[in-house]
Amino acid sequence: MASSKRSEWNSNIAFVMAMIGSAVGLGNIWRFPNVLYSNGGGSFMIPYIVSLFLLGISFVLVEYAVGFKFKSSLIKTLFRVKSNLEPVAWFIALIVFLITTYYICVVGWDLIYVVLSFTKAWGSNPDLFFSNNVLQASDSLSGIFTIVPWVFLSVLAIWAVGWFIVQKDLNEGIGKVSKILLPILCVIVVIIVAFSLTLPGASIGYTQIFTPDWSALTNLNVWLAAFGQIVFSLSLGMSIALTYASYLPEGSELTNNALIVAFSNSGFEIFNSIGIFSILGFMTLSSGIPFNELVTEGTGLAFVVFPKVFNIMGPWASVIGPLFFLCILFAGITSVMALLEVVCYSISEKFDFSRRKSATIVCAVGFCISCLFATASGSTLLGIFDAFLNNFALLFAILIECIIFGWIYNFDNLVETLNRNSTIKVGRLWKAVIKFILPICIFGLWAQGVYNTLLTGDSVSHIVMLCLTVVLIVVPIVFTKLPAKNKDFYKTD
Ligand code: PFF
After folding, report:
1. Is the CB of 232 under 6 A from ligand 1?
2. Measured on CA atoms in the order 27, 28, 30, 33, is the torsion positive or negative?
3. Is the shortest distance between the CB of 328 and ligand 1 below 6 Å?
4. Which of 198, 245, 279, 338 could form a disulfide with 240 if both were Cys (CB 3.0 to 4.6 A apart)?
5. What Rg do the C-alpha atoms of the chain give, in angstroms?
6. Residue 248: which region, alpha, beta or left (left: phi > 0; alpha: psi -120 to 50)?
């Protein structure tokens, strides 16, 4: 197939499900509870909701309008806005690609835990088990040549699944998988939350969500944390929404869909955190460990604290444990396919490759990079990649996107596109948010990220970040210079 044959969603529900699947990911399950807890509990909902409406939904609407209007990949879209913006587009696509390479590795770790959880094979010390047995982690980069076989195999498995889904036709692959996995994901979360509420001590946990610390509202960092969570959770700036919206047929509703996706994503993370907090409350009651020592983020929560909880949960652990890890796995896979689609579509549109060819190239190269994270130094490297790409490069990309669509492109075209295709209208406030408020907030987060990432890291992380910076500059230039095989690519109207 030549890429000139454009894909299109065969139903609105396929688009909405795929969008929700792209947003609901590891960030909702293991990032949000910690962010909520550390930033004032119940009162955090105020900055969270303000960020969701004012910034999150506003930016998603830009991506929807741009995707729907241009009906092209990110690369061709920016090329048509201004031809010398093509390297910027490749820069963003490369960030998405590099994020995918380590995100897949984390999903791979989770796959290992799905298997382990049936027999609680992590033993009595999950902490040690995770670092010594699963990651076989070495402190520095000295273990970069030592492959960890199980991690390697699970990473290979997730890449294979990602390839298998993305190389298929849009509706047969991403559309169908989203329609299957998302309902299963919701059922699993409902079971976990319902079960967790019956545990003794659950109220110690869930009351934390409803107990506000109003003084937190005067803290700027709390507002930045809320905004950071929205950026991560809605996958802002990765042009997933732009790519998926470009496949919408004429006459589709835009604003309504954006609201459904944003509310479902936030509803999912808030509901899920009731379960997480209740389970941690049970742990506090049963083990005496103070609640605040249990609420950790990310891998610490999923692969250390939760196995400890399952160790003392009794027979139910062999049901809830696998369900918990499956939930992370499915949420991860639906996000992975969205990340891959952004990159594959970019490649296939410029070089006129079939879906299968671009998916094969992207996944083969991606897998080779992911192998770095399947070494004994993998977790160290992964932490550095994550800190640099998420706190620094991606925010920079969002800032650039605000400038491009708010200032370089005629923003009124987007207002017109959105209003023509939606019952809910947008206007001056939206324009002001994209042109002024969002860039200022992103800059605040970015400055915080620069401080945390660059100024507090060690020399190893600085070297890795420097290498990443060089890659992020050189590769986009090379891809821009490569001539397009698809001659339509250079048409700018
Ligand atoms: N929004 C998804 C999540 O919360 O996990 C997907 C995602 C976000 C992937 C951010 C990668 C990322 F850096």
Report:
1. yes
2. positive
3. no
4. 338
5. 22
6. beta
Distance (Å) from CA 339 to ligand 1 centroid: 9
- Determine the residue type at 46: I
CA of 27 to the centre of ligand 1 (A): 6
Pocket test for ligand 1, best of 232, 265, 336, 388 (most atoms within 8 A of CB): 232
What are the beta bridge partners of residue 264?
A: none
Alpha carbons 351 and 374: distance in angstroms, whole number: 31
251-272: average pLDDT = 96
pLDDT tens for 139-175 read 778 899 999 999 999 999 999 999 999 999 999 999 9
Range list of H helices, 24-170 = 26, 32-38, 45-50, 58-70, 74-81, 86-117, 126-128, 149-166
User: Closest by alpha carbon to 414, among 264, 261, 245?
Assistant: 245
Q: Which residues pair with 147 in a beta bridge?
A: 375
- How confident is the model over 24-46, as pLDDT tens digits? 999 999 899 999 999 999 999 99
pLDDT at 399 over 50: yes
Give Cα separations from 96 to 25, 103, 344, 354 (angstroms): 15, 10, 11, 20
What sign has the CA pseudo-torsion 444, 449, 450, 452?
positive
C-alpha 98 to ligand 1 mean position (Å)? 12
